[in-house]
Specification:
The chain is mostly beta strands. It is built from 3 helices and 23 strands. Strands 4, 5, 6, 7 and 8 form a 5-stranded antiparallel β-sheet that branches.
Amino acid sequence: MRAGIGVAAVLAAVVPSLMPTTAKAEPAIRASTTQWSTETLAPGVQVRTGTIRHADVTHTWTVAVQSPGISRLTGATTWSDVNTRNWADTTAQKLRDAGFQPRVESVRWPDYSDTPHGVMGLRVRVGSFSTQAAAQSAAAAITSAGFHTSVAWTGYDIQQPADRENVHVAVIDPRVFNGTVEGTHDGNVAQRKTTSSVAARLNSLVAVNGGFFVTSDADGVQGTMSGLGAYDGRLESMAAGSRAALILGDGGRHIRVADLTTTVTARAGNATYRIQGINRVPGLVRDCGRPGASPSDLPWQDVTCRLTDDLVQFTTEFGADLPTGPGLQAVLDASGRGGLGRCARRAGTGGRARPAGHRRCCRLADRERRARQSHPCRRDHPRHQRSARRTRR
């Protein structure tokens, strides 16, 4: 039996089935009932499950009226649910004049937000509906009257408690537990599998999602990490800017959280080149955070940025066909030497990363640099994450 915990360590996971209600100027304090149960999975491993209920909380569908705005990251025109008091009052009056019954709500930053804090702004909403279809019908009528709308579920409002929260806490005593807590991608960083299927294959006791992943072909190869990922001490995906990461050391007996960045350099003689990504499609950067990315080089969750001059390394853990397209490709042997090839091939003929000891580099180059040759890849990064191997009983 494998006593490891696949996918990632779990200390506490909160899975609200429905999130908090309509925001008020001040969060309401509501009575709740809580029930807890405990299950022992192995010596030193317990899972405690709690259900927190707020019987007087009810959530509905509603229509949000949005205001035009400017993105702070890109400078592009966008739409926002929150704006100033003047905008909210003016918009509400226009809605009343058009025959609707709006309400104006004050939205505060969550109490756990140190900065900014206080009132974020005001929003304008119309109606409370039991079904999404009914809210969409009302939104269509409001849009026809000249307003920009979206349909919202008040269960996502953060200022109010959920009607029910399911809380699962894995408590692991490293002095008793005869196993390891580790991160894994199950041997292939380019596969998309559920946490439960990976956990079952690895015979894990407890498992939880360990990061963010690409889930659409438009954003890259599905299943690949969209941020920092290191397994068994090897870097398999680069950081999206400086963001928090869970670091597991000594089989999970030493755990810490830190803001980490990654630096990878390719060298050819005295020349050095910055590698911008590992095991991703050249030119596409999910969650952004890489130098030179557009529309922003800052970390930007759930947004895909682009690079016109990109150098990407593929490791043997990339179990899918390599990307095709314009650029150059180098195949390297275990010594770090290799020949120059072209990434521009017919679909499906990009090849795969070679067996252990071989690596590939693909470069999506701009016209000025396209003539430069590719080069051996050498990862220069601190061994900031270590995962111990699973223990067999």
